[in-house]
Amino acid sequence: MAEDGGAVGLVTERLLLRNWQASDAEPFARLNADPEVMEYFPACLSRTESDALAARCADMIATEGWGPWAVEVRATGEFIGFTGLARPSFAAAFLPAVEIGWRLTRSAWGYGYATEAATAAAGFAFDELELPGIVAFTAVGNLRSRAVMDRLGMTHDPGEDFDHPRVPEGHPVRRHALYRLAAGPRS
């Protein structure tokens, strides 16, 4: 994971979406090992897997200038997870596309942080990267994340839902709901 002094990618009213720091590793590993946070993923992540994910996020930001940013609460400096953009690397009918995604620690749930951070990331996708649209997807039962997608103004066509190729056959979170958001005026 790159240590760059915590350069900021995006700033919102309450949050910093910034480059990853070495100090993020421990709280990120706890987040990824929390069964409630990881309920809609195939499994919790080990410390090694969590560290590798953080390194991939940091590398993407270093290479692209954007990616899944570490999220910090401005008032406290607390690391609460990540939010940002990525290019999914699996095969699916809706790809290629840029995905918006987030994962926050349970203590940060219920404060509107995911929507606030994702709104900033979507704005970056459209205003800075000039993308025509973005996608988001999650297990169909993940109503919390789907509510964030709804609040972002994303649309869902059940006909585009898909079986995630990286989730084993028969696993309860294999079926994913796909959401889209096109560039254009926001309400």
Notes on the protein architecture:
This protein has 187 residues and is of the alpha+beta class. The protein has a single domain, classed as Gcn5-related N-acetyltransferase (GNAT) (Aminopeptidase), CATH 3.40.630.30. Helices cover 27% and strands 25% of the residues. It is built from 4 helices and 9 strands; from the N terminus they run ββααβββαβαβββ. The chain has helices at residues 25-32, 47-64, 113-127, 143-151, and strands spanning 8-11, 15-18, 68-73, 79-86, 99-104, 133-139, 155-156, 162-163, 175-182. Strands 1-2-3-4-5 form a 5-stranded antiparallel sheet, sandwiched between helices. α1 crosses α2. The chain is globular. The model is unreliable at 1-6 (pLDDT under 50). Pfam families: Acetyltransf_3.
Task: Reconstruct the topology from this structure.
Elements: E1 8-11, E2 15-18, H1 25-32, H2 47-64, E3 68-73, E4 79-86, E5 99-104, H3 113-127, E6 133-139, H4 143-151, E7 155-156, E8 162-163, E9 175-182
Antiparallel strand pairs: 1-2, 2-3, 3-4, 4-5, 6-9, 7-9, 8-9
Tally of domains? 1
Percent range of helical residues: 25-40%
Number of helices: 4
Specify the CATH class: Alpha Beta
Domain N-acetyltransferase: 15-174
GO molecular function: acyltransferase activity, transferring groups other than amino-acyl groups
Protein name: GNAT family N-acetyltransferase
Organism: Yinghuangia soli
